[in-house]
């Protein structure tokens, strides 16, 4: 069975919803999936200064384990998901990626499939720049980057050729049905590619 790790950060649940849809698509293609939420890296003082952040983090952390180095080694495919932070990846997800240096040094991630997804608060708020910025660490880790292109009709309605995406309009608006369709396709595509890359 192809093994897929989906490591994401989500504060309001928008990126989480995309992660769940990607997991559904991967499972439909025959994958075993681990969904993992990256943890906060800022101080409690900062978290408590934003209404609802502490409560949301506690609820999400109760649902999902934190991603580990062992998860990345276990996986045949790794899918990273992040909300946009000033046009780039969140510090929470980046901290997890940075923790994979030991596996990188040993070459243990070389040849695995890698893909990305994300969300933003506003249209043109950085979804594409965030996804493209995540391609750089994928390349350094030795992952085979799996973009979506326009390989499915859903991509002509939503998402990006770089990965699934969503816009929440500053209201934590959940992903649309079209957004989720792209995410499910991404899960299937990554699983199919990862299965093809596995040694016989």
Written account of the structure:
With 200 residues, the protein is of the alpha/beta class. 44% of the residues lie in helices and 16% in strands. The protein contains eight helices and six strands; from the N terminus they run βαβαααβααβαββα. Strands 1, 2, 3, 4, 5 and 6 form a six-stranded parallel β-sheet that branches. β4 (113-120), α7 and β5 form a beta-alpha-beta unit. The two termini are 13 Å apart. The mean pLDDT is 97.
Which labels suit this protein?
200 residues; alpha/beta; Rossmann fold; six-stranded parallel sheet; 16% strand
Strand content: 15-25%
Q: What is the mean predicted local confidence, pLDDT?
A: 97
Which homologous superfamily in CATH is the superfamily? Flavodoxin domain
Compressed to H and E, one letter per element, the order equals EHEHHHEHHEHEEH
Q: Based on the structure given, which CATH architecture is correct?
A: 3-Layer(aba) Sandwich
Report the uncertain regions: none
For the termini, the CA-CA separation is: 13 Å
Please state the overall shape, judged from the principal axes of the Cα atoms. Answer: globular
Q: What is the CA-atom radius of gyration, in angstroms?
A: 16 Å
Summarize the structure.
The protein has 200 residues and is α/β, with parallel strands linked by helices.
